[in-house]
Amino acid sequence: MTELSGARILVTGATGALGSRIAGHFAAQGAQLVLTGRDADKLQALGIPAELFTLDLSLPGAAASLIQTVTSAGQLDGVVAAHGVVAFGPVVELDSQTLGTLQALNQTSPIELITSAIPALLASKAAGREPFVLTISGVIADMPTAGMAAYGASKAGLKSFVSATQRELRREGIRVLDTRPPHTETGLASRAIAGVAPTMPQGLDPDAVAARIVAAIVNDEKDVPAELFS
Fold it and tell me: What are the tens digits of pLDDT across the range 157-181?
């Protein structure tokens, strides 16, 4: 089992419905947190003891710069990439700005976080800790859906990267896992950067989803597909 007490963990997207709940679970188990988001007031309002960083991870190089800043201040034992955006609409209406933002936030910046964090995570392992990286690609990564093609592509690309990286870093003692919860009532669909969300059935409770994600970390799981959230 992975011990969270005393572990220094970075959570991006910490003001989101899942990121904030995951951070709350970590804090309750004694982790030292580094939290990021795009809104400084919302970060402060979380009321979670942590180092707080306000930044836009869609900007080129922002993820790598964040890791450099975080690791220069101390150890890094875990990374949870909980940030992301969604867009809806047919492919004939897809514009380059929407595509670029989806790719930057859902795929490129998590990849930069992971690759930039590897030296620090190797140092964590060498110090006898249990380093990990967790991503949340969601069920869409396994289920291409009409009206969500670009969003699904960005998440499927992340899942593919994580799957291959997991194999590469396993021998180094760094655990990398992807989680793919079904539709969850996070409110993300109402904040789409393009298009309007279709009518969806009631989603999962974000408290339950966050708890399941943290349990996957603690229990040393390596992959959490949608069916393991039921």
Answer: 999 999 999 999 999 999 999 999 9
Q: State pLDDT tens for residues 118-133.
A: 999 999 999 999 999 9
CA 151, CA 106: separation in Å to the nearest integer?
8
Mean of the pLDDT values across residues 71-96?
A: 97
- Quick one: which of 181, 180, 177, 179 has its CA closest to 165? 177
Cα torsion 32, 35, 41, 45: sign = negative
pTM beyond 0.85: the answer is yes
Which DSSP helix (H) or strand (E) runs through 80? strand 78-81
State the virtual CA torsion across 83, 208, 25, 67 in degrees, nearest 10: -20
List domains and CATH numbers for the chain: 8-229 (3.40.50.720)
Rounded to an integer, the average pLDDT of 58-82 is: 97
